[in-house]
Amino acid sequence: MGKIGYYSAASAVIHFQMAMDITGNNLANVNTNGFKASRPSFADLIYTERNNDNEETQFGHGMRVQKTDMMFEQSQIRSTGRMLDFAALDEGFFACATPEGITTYTKDGAFYMTQTQEGVWELCNEYGAFILDYDGNRITIPFVDEDSQEIDYPALTEMIGVYRFDNPYGLDQIGDNYFVATNSSGEAQADPLASKKEGYLEASSTSVANEMSKVIEYQRAYQLNINMVKTHDELQSIVNNLRN
């Protein structure tokens, strides 16, 4: 008895579970500033050709998650009234230098002040990464005057770098809402003309309604293929018993 049906259903079970994991990650980050949701794309594993009325027709067997696409559409921009919150509009990114020395990029513009061992105040994010200017240098907080702790917000806004990529869909997501450049994305390009808004944050691009519809879709497909695996296994047992 052929096992093509068993292997087709088994591969679908594995990869629909992967799709559920992607959807679950999107839902878990519905309140994460600047988060960009992902979408799985499916493809057949193998094809067979059959001659049907003198026309060759391809039939797919099995499936897999071929790739995961990032959804970089502009999310809702919401006002926070906090002067250290910033939103990089459209396909702009903020650059960060992580404590491990890695240059990363993010859409999360919730920034804070931190004092270094030398007593210098610098701009950072919640993970302790330093925010970079257009030249790739860490940003020292500008004050109105040397004797004042009042921040010069217009000057600070001008200093915060915004970067673009030729192909942002080629960026690699590494966790903590960070992206890193790849050969597909190209190198980061500082763009002083890119728009940024002070006192605003970009919301997550996750749509709860869309994600929940995907959950239902993937669950039904998962259950269908589980039943196919069980049915094929039962038929195989019947055939083996008849042979004995």
Features:
244 residues, alpha+beta, 2 domains, 5-stranded antiparallel sheet, two-stranded antiparallel ribbon, 28% helix, 30% strand
Characterise this structure.
The structure is a single chain. The protein contains three helices and 15 strands. The chain has 244 residues and is α+β, with helices and mostly antiparallel strands. The chain has two domains: 4-72 and 206-243, no CATH class; 78-201, no CATH class. Strands 5, 6, 9, 10 and 13 form a five-stranded antiparallel sheet that branches. The chain has a two-stranded antiparallel ribbon with strand order 1-2. It is elongated and about 95 Å long. The mean pLDDT is 87.
Tell me the layout of helices and strands.
Blueprint: H1 4-28, E1 38-52, E2 55-70, E3 77-79, E4 86-88, E5 93-97, E6 103-106, E7 112-115, E8 121-124, E9 130-131, H2 153-159, E10 162-164, E11 172-175, E12 178-180, E13 189-190, E14 196-198, E15 200-202, H3 208-243
Antiparallel strand pairs: 1-2, 3-15, 4-14, 5-6, 5-9, 5-10, 7-8, 10-13, 11-12
Helix pairs in contact: 1-3
